[in-house]
From TrEMBL:
Keywords: Membrane, Transmembrane, Transmembrane helix. The keyword Membrane applies. This is Uncharacterized protein. The chain crosses the membrane at residues 6-26, 133-156. The lineage of its organism: Bacteria, Bacillati, Actinomycetota, Actinomycetes, Pseudonocardiales. The keyword Transmembrane helix applies.
Length: 159
């Protein structure tokens, strides 16, 4: 009697793990496709190799379609932003604007540039994180599916 109960519970757990694993794999793959589609829709393209840091030259002219490419492009923006702002952050420039730079058009434009650059970087890094999380979901889904298959075998064999 107890053996039958254990077999039924094990089979039930197997079904739950198999269903969860399959769902996670599908959702993870769909998530990656959604991130890739959104990045492609933005039509972001890396500049020529001479405008890129040496470690990113392999991306020259390529469109941004993956999380890794989004992260790399955010590094390009960071480098350009550091040049444009002399390494100052948005908050530092904004503090100058409110602290005594009222009416200074150059400082206002610099603040807008810093804000736009940081916003773009944040969006691209968010895409990278979503790309990575979707990979994690696929991996965990595969693990759940394997665990479900093992539990199903155990319940069917009566181990």
């Amino acid at each position: 009697m107890l053996d039958d109960l254990v077999a039924v519970l094990t089979a039930g757990a197997a079904v739950v793990f198999l269903a969860a694993g399959a769902t996670m794999i599908v959702r993870g793959v769909l998530g990656r496709r959604a991130v890739g589609a959104e990045l492609a829709a933005q039509r972001i393209r890396f500049p020529a190799a001479d405008a890129l840091p040496a470690d990113l030259a392999r991306h020259a002219g390529s469109p941004v379609r993956t999380g890794g490419q989004a992260r790399a492009y955010s590094a390009v923006i960071a480098a350009n932003l550091a040049k444009a702002t002399d390494g100052r952050t948005y908050s530092e420039i904004a503090a100058d604007c409110t602290g005594g730079g009222h009416g200074d058009e150059r400082l206002t434009r610099l603040r807008e540039t810093a804000f736009t650059g940081q916003s773009l970087r944040g969006a691209l890094l968010g895409a990278y994180q979503a790309w990575q999380v979707s990979l994690l979901v696929v991996g965990l889904g595969a693990l759940f599916a394997v665990l479900g298959a093992v539990l199903l075998l155990v319940s069917l064999r009566g181990w």
